[in-house]
Here is the input.
Amino acid sequence: MEILPGIMTKEDIPFIAELEKECFSAPWTEKGLEEELTNENAVFFTAKRNGCLVGYMGMHCVLDECYVANVAVRKTERRKGIGRLLLRYAETKARERGCSFISLEVRISNLAAIALYENEGYEKMGERKNFYSSPTENALIMTKNL
Here is the structure.
């Protein structure tokens, strides 16, 4: 079945909050996600198969700069092109807003995500020391010029 991207709605928030808990050691709360619905700089969207959430991504665009907040895909749905679909959808939305680049942080141990980002044209730009917790780990900064 086809996976479809779409803009996050209030109805998606409980499912995204559960996905956050599955994927991250410091997950966003439902309240935090809901606040993004009214943030004019935020663009949060979902990937769904048969109406069921399989992934989501959020980003913030300010002036001509875009920063990814999170990319999350259900563990059972990984390596099926969902992350790639979300990244490409993000690029479309960033271009629509006039952004010149997208930047993100990724755990240096997340080799699968790093490989995906590199395959999609993101370049390593630097490192943030002790950026992540539980466990403490550096983040690799990756950027793609649009």
Notes: The mean pLDDT is 94. The helical segments are 13-23, 30-36, 82-96, 111-119. The domain at 3-145 is CATH 3.40.630.30 (Aminopeptidase).
